[in-house]
Every structure is written in C-alpha cells, then in structure tokens.
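If your schedule permits, I should be very grateful for your opinion on a structural question. I would ask you to consider whether the tokens describe a fold that such a sequence might reasonably adopt. Thank you for your consideration; the sequence and its tokens are set out here.
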Amino acid sequence: MRLALAIRVNDFLSGLFLGVGIRLVDFKMECGRLWEGDLMRIVVADEISPDSCRLWDIKSNEKLDKDRFRRDLGGLLEAYTDVAKRLGIVGENEPPRGAGPVLVKG
C-alpha cells in the first residue's frame, strides 16, 4: 500500500514540477495511519518543499533546493522564492522575505 501511494505521489509531483520547468530528482516522504472507526488508511504525513525534495531547473540544472545550503552555494532564499513563484504560491513581483539561514563553519 505504501509503495502504491509513493508511486502516485511521485507521478503527481513529477508532473507538477515539470509543468513549471523544474525536475524532481528525488524526495522524502513519511506516511502515517489514519483510523476512522475500524477503517485504516495510509496517508502522507510530511511536507513537500525544497527542504524535502531535490529540485533542479530543467534547462540549466541549477539546484533550487536545500543543496544550495548544504554545498554553501548561496542564494537559498532566492531559489526557494523562485520555486514558490513558479508554482504560483507567491506573486511574480513579490521580493524574497527574510535573510535565510547562514552556514556556520566550525
């Protein structure tokens, strides 16, 4: 059951991101059980975001995900904002908000 759900989510997300010029390279997904009386269903119990997915621009292969932070590439906030704009979550002319995380080397 969980494999079938993962395949359905993968198909949906791959198409969603492909439609806005982003390649879904991989993602993590957590599932949970939802009980309604005697009926048990498996449900997705996780966020879908650039923190939990690898997202690359289709044309340039530019990383638009948390790898920008992990690899100290900079531009994390701008990349996340680009993903949100492509998906229509924030307006096209809306500037990035916040400062974003800072990599601390120790």
